[in-house]
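**User:** Hello, beginner here. Are you able to go through the protein record under this note? It all follows right here:
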Amino acid sequence: MDTADNVMPFVTAAIDAYGTGVLAKTSELAADTEVARGSRILQRVFGRGDAQAHRVIGRVAGAKPDDESGRAALRNAIMEEFRADPLLRREVTAMLPRVPVTGSGERSVAVGDITVA
């Protein structure tokens, strides 16, 4: 799975919570919630946002939950930013929660953790 797909639950939760003001949202950003993480990711990817970023975010904010075209446009805009700045993808990947590795079954061994990327 790629990073743009992995960030979508977080960024859409932030947009659902804050709407088009998500890029200016600063309170609660230290919290480790899905919405706060999504806000931080959007701010890292789009900064304060150009007109195009605001249009895409507005489209997602105004869409019905089952409207996939707005979410696809947001994912594409995020992918464009990743293509323009390869380091950005690594930085955003580091912002995603880490999933611990656990063993299962008799005599299983698991060490470390996996970053969802």
The chain has five helices and two strands. Helices lie at 3-18, 34-46, 51-61, 68-84, 86-95. The beta strands are 98-100, 113-115.
